[in-house]
Design a protein that fits this description.
homotetramer; 334 residues; alpha/beta; 13 helices
Chain lengths: 334, 334, 334, 334
């Protein structure tokens, strides 16, 4: 490719800003040509701070720009599907934040549009690019751990979302656990055949009032016999707790939380260590950059996306089965 | 008590020897007067090595000795109940290895006999006396972790049992997981209301052929809302893996495996640490000593046993529910 | 400051490239206008890769450019002093890599020129900006550790330099230990009053043949009574070993090596962890970025440099005293 | 040996009690026949608690008992030499607590008496039997670390001794550092050729007033070129700090402090770990038992003691050289 890849950012909120910085600082092959946000001020501000030539209120202006090769869909969740379909129809490659949509049929429509237009679609499961989890994956793939028997994923947020957010987000399984479903599929390289959920509202009654849970232990039986267990909490008061352990016929591997420093200190009061990095922006910042590098590499070098539309679809299906398991108090087959 | 407590050991196998050494080395208040084993040679050898005055083939001789205050039932599992009942009827205090019996009714008979005779009965869940798990319990009891939400117990053996042993032991849930059921009850100070098992035979097909599993993830919903999750394997090739993590509204606590030393070393090949202590005799040796101190204290000072007959009964009930959940593929209420 | 700070890079070698990338990616207040290198190709290549408008063979062209506010002196060590003096005379603010010079008088000339011209001079002791060591410093400054009694610095390279490099670098004390002398002064906020060196050539006889050592334990007695001990090796086969421990009247603090991931894994062969990040570029990459941010902040906001010319001078004096102690086999007062 | 080894304990203070319990609980080949103490009550109490047949005020009664094979010299330091000489003359094998004496000539007299009588003499450097330090030694001896270059010993007490004790103990180098001198010789399997001490009184001025120090960094140059560095403090407020690191041409090894449990816990306030075991009785309890097993094995099986009289002598010489180095401010050759 002789010229730089031209990219448009749709949605100038938190994750849009993160991807903008990643592209600007770490992906020299890219030029961000335009940014849009229904809140035009946000688009304009992001454009100014990053010397992006164009800022729009309407994302369609980005789609109409023939120079733009690819778009990042970072708008609110309920707009992901519609924008992605239009982007595909406009012949743009697409990086779409997770979830594509909470409705399986809508997600399937996106996949169809993408297939028809023959554009790339990569979904925003950034944790696959995390240095710690990649190391676990490497150890599995090397065969050093043998056949996988058990996978344990701990995923706890530092603070609960507002009940308002809970309502629009699809609930904990589709908003939070979905990352862990993706991780289970990624690590085992296989599909879930059955799911069982033990969950409750233990932290914030307001979350229960809008019909959601905040604490869960989720058992996934994979097709190859691996048993995955995910434990989720919306509030780990000590910070963002993101750990994984895998156990196989030849060994075990685990990763701990990343911390701001390796310091430990001892006084008459006790022995202390650093708390985990606070939340996903701190913990996963490097993975966001690697995710962008990956997407740009996919587009420029015509590669298969490492996180596909199918990954986006299947995780939604698992999330919906999780809800059902919780509601009916029994394991659900997929 | 002016004189020493006189104790008889019934069963001179591995665990009988462990308790004999613990009593001899660490419990000066005790005198072991006799040991019995259906294999008389084993009894005689243990007696000689430890200057125990009497060795018998028949345990009834111990029960008939009016000087003996208490017995340790360390014989094979299928004799625990009968011997315990006779011991109670003979007015002996009883320390009985786990499980009391695999049959709930038989266990209940033991409890009735014990109650009727008004003797002490302590059951051999030694892990309650482990320094690491006691620390976890202290942290919970101190309130520092707030209300418990999630308890995670990892319990993996270094090598699988023989299929012959599997057949008589009652299977993994009643032989191995039973320790974890006790730990869940101990840590949460509550009862299981529902259990769900995802289990399989992944390690040794011979175990599957005799109808048992060797790999399991078990979800326990406790009456107070805590969710406990146990992961079991019959073969962790790196050694005995015994860890616990608890998570609550105010914090989290965890313990790692004990190792022979704190050494780590680094070469061109990598960075290395010690493997876990090999198996239960290495890992739990101190807990066995504390268990004996506890039992002797219970008898001498007329205290409530820290592990009661009810603890022995309920864990059997959980184990049987685990089997049922595995067989029927659904959660089982208790 | 309305406009961006305009900077020239003198020296397009490894460290020149590192600083160029740091400025470009992380310091938006800066515009790199020109780069020079006596190897013009290197200058040109760096300019092209980073869209730097001008590339020169002769650094004087940078000094003559009235638009350029500040220069980074990243050329070979023996040119640092001369270029810095000329840069000061040209009214440029200066970031100078360590060491300013191996000759104390020359360093003093630089300091005089800088003072006379009233420009900023910051010296390249990047480790002060390392996240781990900053945490140690914060713990000291917070008073949590009380009065400092002992400081221990481990600083070991992964592989020895070539004997050619050893000859021009001033030897281990002035090339490698100098970072540790700076760290000792930084952490204790004080001056060395006496130094004692136990050193030898253990790794590469060729290093001994050119009159240098490769293994050392250096004791520094600080004016306030703190005793610092540095251990240096030119070859830690497991990687770059950079750790610090401080011990005071109220407690202790330490940092471990940074690793590529937090993974540990266990197999039948043992328990493994990651090796340290390989060398200074991997380990200290973030500190280089923070160093640049700091320098730009110093210039733009007219602040006192956090690493001054005096820091550059005193560490050279300590390095020369270290050589003398080694040669004479006795402690040397400063 | 058909019968048990008969042992007499001379000195019923703290360390006498420790050895008594070790022998009783862990060394079945031994029978403790008598105990003596100039405070007869202490002897009598220890005898009663441990069913030792005889208690004396005068140690000579032990030496006169022809049945007694070996004695443990656990009396006050200033009596070690005299009692050991008499014990040798009485044909008893000797375990003598460290130091044998603070006077080199007296120590030599003991060694002569022992040689002449052809009895065993083992000196009480218990740390050689510590599980952690033995692991370090094993790693060195296996060759896995290559040639040793640097050995670092951290040895810090939890609280300073009384000035009264300091006066009679010979000072920090002969009382406390002596263990570390022994460890340096043990790990490197070699002799010190030069010592340099940087020391001060930083903790308790009363210690300085009686002419001693409480904080030190000691550099030992070994004959084989290894450089050992010991850091000592009389007061680590967080507990007994006993760590070792060794560094060689092929790798590095280190051990951390032992802790009461492996627990770590995290709350909103921070991440916590256990403090080190409090002091030498807690930390080194297992090593005391292994030390006794070793001594009894030496006597029964006519082996070379693992810690000889020469080890006792040489460490005193190093301690005296340490004092001289501190007083004269220069390295001292041995």
């Amino acid at each position: 490719m002789d010229r730089k890849l031209k990219v448009g950012i749709i949605g100038a909120g938190r994750i849009g800003r993160v991807h903008t910085l990643s592209l600007k600082n770490f992906v020299p092959e890219v030029e961000i040509k335009a940014v849009s946000d229904i809140c035009f001020d946000a688009a304009q501000k992001l454009a100014e701070q990053n010397r992006i030539p164009y800022a729009y209120k309407d994302y369609k202006k980005i789609l109409l720009d023939p120079e733009i090769d690819a778009v990042l869909v970072c708008s609110s969740t309920d707009t992901h599907a519609q924008i992605s379909i239009e982007a595909a129809e406009a012949g743009k490659h697409i990086f779409c934040e997770k979830p594509i949509d909470l409705n399986v049929d809508k997600v399937k429509s996106v996949l169809e549009a993408v297939n028809k237009a023959n554009v790339k679609l990569q979904v925003g499961f950034n944790r696959r690019f995390d240095h710690d989890f990649k190391k676990i994956k490497e150890l599995i793939d090397s065969g050093e751990l043998g056949e996988l028997h058990i996978v344990k994923i701990t995923s706890r947020d530092p603070e609960p979302p507002s009940p308002e957010y809970v309502k629009v987000s699809g609930g904990m399984f589709l908003d939070m656990s979905i990352h862990d479903f993706d991780m289970a599929r990624y690590l085992t390289d296989g599909e879930v055949k059955e799911i069982y959920v033990a969950a409750d509202c233990r932290i914030d009654p307001a979350i229960g009032e809008v019909g959601d849970v905040d604490t869960a232990v989720i058992t996934l039986r994979m097709e190859d016999g691996t048993i995955c267990v995910i434990d989720n909490s919306r509030q780990a008061v000590y910070g963002y707790d993101q750990r994984i352990e895998v156990f196989g016929s030849k060994g075990q591997a685990e990763v701990q939380n990343d911390t701001p420093s390796t310091a430990s200190w001892s006084t008459a009061e006790g022995v202390f260590k650093e708390k985990p990095k606070y939340f996903f922006l701190e913990r996963y910042m490097d993975s966001f950059a690697d995710e962008m590098k990956s997407f740009v590499d996919v587009v420029i070098n015509d590669k298969e996306p490492p996180v596909t539309g199918v990954d986006g679809l299947v995780t939604i299906e698992i999330g919906l089965a999780a809800k059902k398991s919780h509601e009916e108090g029994r394991p659900i087959k997929l």
